[in-house]
Amino acid sequence: MRRTSRKYLERHIRKKTGQAIHDYRMIEHGHRVVVAVSGGKDSIVMMKVLACLREAAPLDFELIPVHVRSGFEHGFEGVREWIREELGHEVLVRDGHIAEILQSAGDPDKSPCALCSRLRRGNLYGIASELGAHAIALGHHLDDIVETFLLRSFYTGQLGAMAPARVTDDGTNRIIRPLAYCTAEMVEAYSLHLEVKPVVMTCPARHDSRREFIRGCIKRLERDIPCLKHSIFASLGNIDTKSLCVKENAHADPD
C-alpha cells in the first residue's frame, strides 16, 4: 500500500468493513454478535474495527468477544488485557480442549487443520447458542476467500469459497466475515499500528503446502494482473449461471 499511516489505514479499513457489513446485511439493529478472537492479527484487527464502528454506527448492537482456547496459543492474556483496556470489552474465554482431542483422536498421517477448525467452530456454535447471538464474526479477509475458491476449484473440482455472510447448513447459526473487502496486506499493515502483540502459535500441524502454492500463484499472476484478487472476488458474486457445465441444464442451451 502506498500510504501506511495509522490514520489512513484506519479510515480505509473501517470504510471497507462498514461497506461489507452493509452490502451483506451482516449486522442489524439489536443484534448480539459473537466475535471470534483467536488472538492472531486478523481477529485483533476485526475486533478493533468492529468496536470502532459500533461507537459510530447509527445501529445499536452488542459485541461479545470470545476466545476458544486450543492449547497451542501463548500470550493471549496480553490480547485479552488490550481488548479490555483499549476497547472496553471483556473477553469470554472457554477451554476447547482441542490439543488433547487432536492428540488422542487425530490421524498422524493427515493434517489436523480440518479437525481443529471443526472443533473450534463447534465450540463457537455452542457459545453463540448459549448467549442467544444473532451472528458469529470470523476474521477471514479477501485473500482467504479468494485462496479458498482456488483451492476448491483446483483440488476438489467444486465451485465454492467463503461467503461473507451465510447461515450454517443446519440453520442454527449465522456466520459473518466483516473483513471480506479487506486484503491481507491491508490487515497486516494496520495490525502493526496497534499496540498489542498477537499470540504465538505452537501448533504441530504440517505446513499447508497447497495454500502456500495458491498464494505463490496469485503473487506471480499479480505481476501482470494487479487487480487479480479483486476481480476473482467480484466474479464470485457475478455468476453467469447459463454458461456453467451443470448437467441438468444441458438441454436448455438453444445453441
Describe the structure.
Helix 1 (6-23) crosses helix 7 (184-191) and helix 2 packs across helix 7. It contains nine helices and eight strands. The mean pLDDT is 90. It is globular and about 50 Å long. It has one domain (6-206): HUPs (Rossmann fold). The strands form two sheets. It has a six-stranded mixed sheet with strand order 4-2-1-5-7-6, with helices on both faces. Strands 3-8 form a two-stranded antiparallel sheet. Helices cover 46% and strands 12% of the residues. Strand 1 (32-36), helix 2 and strand 2 form a beta-alpha-beta unit. With 255 residues, it is of the alpha/beta class.
The share of residues in extended strands comes to: 5-15%
SS elements, strand count: 8
Taking the sheet with the most strands, its summary is:
6 strands, mixed
Helix and strand run:
HEHEEHEHHEHEEHEHH
At the third CATH level, what is the topology name? Rossmann fold
Main-sheet strand order equals 4-2-1-5-7-6
Low-confidence stretches: none
The CATH architecture assignment turns out to be 3-Layer(aba) Sandwich
Mean of residue pLDDT values: 90
